[in-house]
Fold this sequence. Notes:
Mean pLDDT: 81
Strand content: under 5%
Distance between the termini: 43 Å
Low-confidence stretches: none
Amino acid sequence: xxxxxKYGWMHHKDGPHMQPGILSTGEVQEFYFPDDHSQFxxxxxxxxxxxxxxxxxxASGNLLAQCKxxxxxxGKTDCCCRWLLFxxxxxxxxxxxxxxxxxxxxxxxxxxxxxxxxxxxIEQYWGAVKFHYRGFRNQPTTIDEMEKWVLECLDSVPLLxxxx
Length: 164
Protein backbone atom coordinates (compact mmCIF):
# COMPACT_ATOMS: atom_id res chain seq x y z
CA UNK A 1 0.00 0.00 0.00
CA UNK A 2 1.71 3.24 -1.05
CA UNK A 3 2.08 6.24 1.21
CA UNK A 4 1.06 8.60 -1.59
CA UNK A 5 -1.09 8.11 -4.74
CA LYS A 6 1.64 9.46 -7.00
CA TYR A 7 3.56 6.21 -6.30
CA GLY A 8 0.69 4.48 -8.01
CA TRP A 9 -1.59 1.81 -6.74
CA MET A 10 -3.95 1.58 -9.66
CA HIS A 11 -6.88 -0.77 -9.91
CA HIS A 12 -8.48 -2.22 -12.95
CA LYS A 13 -11.68 -0.34 -13.67
CA ASP A 14 -13.88 -3.23 -12.54
CA GLY A 15 -11.33 -4.77 -10.16
CA PRO A 16 -11.77 -5.24 -6.42
CA HIS A 17 -11.67 -2.17 -4.19
CA MET A 18 -11.23 -1.90 -0.46
CA GLN A 19 -14.41 -1.05 1.38
CA PRO A 20 -14.65 2.45 2.82
CA GLY A 21 -13.68 3.09 6.41
CA ILE A 22 -15.57 4.86 9.16
CA LEU A 23 -14.14 8.05 10.69
CA SER A 24 -14.38 8.71 14.43
CA THR A 25 -17.27 11.09 13.63
CA GLY A 26 -19.20 8.17 12.12
CA GLU A 27 -18.78 9.49 8.58
CA VAL A 28 -17.84 7.15 5.76
CA GLN A 29 -14.25 7.55 4.58
CA GLU A 30 -13.65 6.68 0.94
CA PHE A 31 -10.20 5.25 0.16
CA TYR A 32 -10.29 6.20 -3.53
CA PHE A 33 -10.37 9.58 -5.20
CA PRO A 34 -13.57 10.27 -7.15
CA ASP A 35 -13.56 9.51 -10.87
CA ASP A 36 -13.66 13.24 -11.65
CA HIS A 37 -10.56 14.08 -9.53
CA SER A 38 -8.15 16.35 -11.43
CA GLN A 39 -4.91 14.49 -10.63
CA PHE A 40 -5.79 10.98 -9.51
CA UNK A 41 -9.21 9.94 -10.88
CA UNK A 42 -10.31 6.66 -9.29
CA UNK A 43 -6.90 6.10 -7.67
CA UNK A 44 -6.26 4.86 -4.17
CA UNK A 45 -5.67 7.87 -1.91
CA UNK A 46 -2.59 6.48 -0.22
CA UNK A 47 -1.90 6.01 3.47
CA UNK A 48 -0.83 9.60 4.11
CA UNK A 49 -4.08 11.08 2.77
CA UNK A 50 -6.21 8.54 4.64
CA UNK A 51 -4.36 9.28 7.89
CA UNK A 52 -4.75 13.03 7.35
CA UNK A 53 -8.50 12.59 6.86
CA UNK A 54 -8.60 10.69 10.17
CA UNK A 55 -6.80 13.67 11.81
CA UNK A 56 -3.97 11.37 12.91
CA UNK A 57 -1.14 12.83 10.85
CA UNK A 58 1.69 14.02 13.07
CA ALA A 59 2.76 17.65 12.96
CA SER A 60 6.27 16.61 11.98
CA GLY A 61 4.96 14.84 8.90
CA ASN A 62 7.91 12.45 8.92
CA LEU A 63 6.10 9.12 9.16
CA LEU A 64 7.59 6.26 7.21
CA ALA A 65 5.27 4.19 5.07
CA GLN A 66 6.33 1.19 7.16
CA CYS A 67 9.08 0.34 9.62
CA LYS A 68 12.07 -1.52 8.23
CA UNK A 69 11.27 -5.20 7.81
CA UNK A 70 7.73 -4.61 9.17
CA UNK A 71 9.28 -4.59 12.68
CA UNK A 72 7.70 -1.73 14.59
CA UNK A 73 9.14 -0.65 17.91
CA UNK A 74 7.39 -2.41 20.78
CA GLY A 75 4.85 -0.19 22.52
CA LYS A 76 4.84 2.50 19.81
CA THR A 77 1.60 3.10 17.95
CA ASP A 78 2.62 5.99 15.72
CA CYS A 79 5.95 4.87 14.27
CA CYS A 80 4.74 4.42 10.69
CA CYS A 81 1.69 4.81 8.45
CA ARG A 82 1.09 1.08 8.29
CA TRP A 83 0.97 0.66 12.09
CA LEU A 84 -1.26 3.70 12.53
CA LEU A 85 -3.79 2.33 10.05
CA PHE A 86 -3.60 -1.25 11.31
CA UNK A 87 -4.63 -0.07 14.78
CA UNK A 88 -7.70 1.91 13.72
CA UNK A 89 -10.99 0.41 14.98
CA UNK A 90 -12.60 0.31 11.54
CA UNK A 91 -9.60 -1.58 10.16
CA UNK A 92 -9.37 -3.99 13.10
CA UNK A 93 -13.10 -4.77 12.99
CA UNK A 94 -13.33 -5.22 9.20
CA UNK A 95 -14.43 -8.71 8.25
CA UNK A 96 -12.87 -10.43 5.25
CA UNK A 97 -14.84 -10.57 2.01
CA UNK A 98 -15.29 -14.31 2.50
CA UNK A 99 -16.68 -13.83 6.03
CA UNK A 100 -19.05 -11.09 4.83
CA UNK A 101 -20.32 -13.32 2.02
CA UNK A 102 -20.93 -16.24 4.38
CA UNK A 103 -22.70 -14.17 7.05
CA UNK A 104 -24.77 -12.31 4.42
CA UNK A 105 -26.35 -15.67 3.55
CA UNK A 106 -27.27 -16.31 7.19
CA UNK A 107 -24.45 -18.73 8.00
CA UNK A 108 -21.86 -18.65 10.77
CA UNK A 109 -18.26 -18.23 9.69
CA UNK A 110 -15.80 -19.85 12.09
CA UNK A 111 -12.12 -19.96 11.18
CA UNK A 112 -9.80 -22.51 12.72
CA UNK A 113 -6.42 -21.46 14.12
CA UNK A 114 -3.70 -21.56 11.47
CA UNK A 115 -1.50 -24.64 11.28
CA UNK A 116 -3.50 -26.73 13.74
CA UNK A 117 -4.55 -29.66 11.59
CA UNK A 118 -5.48 -31.71 14.66
CA UNK A 119 -8.22 -29.13 15.42
CA UNK A 120 -9.61 -29.13 11.90
CA UNK A 121 -12.24 -31.77 11.18
CA ILE A 122 -11.58 -31.68 7.44
CA GLU A 123 -7.99 -32.83 8.03
CA GLN A 124 -9.28 -35.73 10.14
CA TYR A 125 -11.70 -36.60 7.36
CA TRP A 126 -9.05 -36.51 4.61
CA GLY A 127 -6.69 -38.56 6.76
CA ALA A 128 -9.33 -41.26 7.18
CA VAL A 129 -10.13 -41.20 3.44
CA LYS A 130 -6.46 -41.54 2.47
CA PHE A 131 -5.98 -44.37 4.99
CA HIS A 132 -8.94 -46.21 3.52
CA TYR A 133 -7.77 -45.59 -0.07
CA ARG A 134 -4.28 -46.95 0.66
CA GLY A 135 -5.92 -50.10 2.03
CA PHE A 136 -7.01 -51.23 -1.44
CA ARG A 137 -4.93 -54.18 -2.56
CA ASN A 138 -4.95 -53.38 -6.27
CA GLN A 139 -4.01 -50.04 -7.71
CA PRO A 140 -6.57 -48.51 -10.11
CA THR A 141 -5.75 -48.93 -13.79
CA THR A 142 -8.23 -46.44 -15.26
CA ILE A 143 -9.51 -43.01 -14.31
CA ASP A 144 -13.04 -44.36 -13.95
CA GLU A 145 -11.84 -47.04 -11.54
CA MET A 146 -9.89 -44.51 -9.50
CA GLU A 147 -12.87 -42.15 -9.34
CA LYS A 148 -15.10 -45.01 -8.17
CA TRP A 149 -12.60 -45.94 -5.42
CA VAL A 150 -12.18 -42.34 -4.28
CA LEU A 151 -15.94 -41.85 -4.02
CA GLU A 152 -16.24 -45.10 -2.10
CA CYS A 153 -13.51 -43.96 0.30
CA LEU A 154 -15.16 -40.56 0.78
CA ASP A 155 -18.45 -42.25 1.61
CA SER A 156 -16.83 -44.81 3.91
CA VAL A 157 -15.86 -42.36 6.68
CA PRO A 158 -18.57 -42.37 9.37
CA LEU A 159 -20.00 -38.99 10.40
CA LEU A 160 -19.11 -39.71 14.02
CA UNK A 161 -15.42 -39.89 13.06
CA UNK A 162 -15.68 -36.54 11.27
CA UNK A 163 -17.42 -34.84 14.20
CA UNK A 164 -14.97 -36.09 16.84
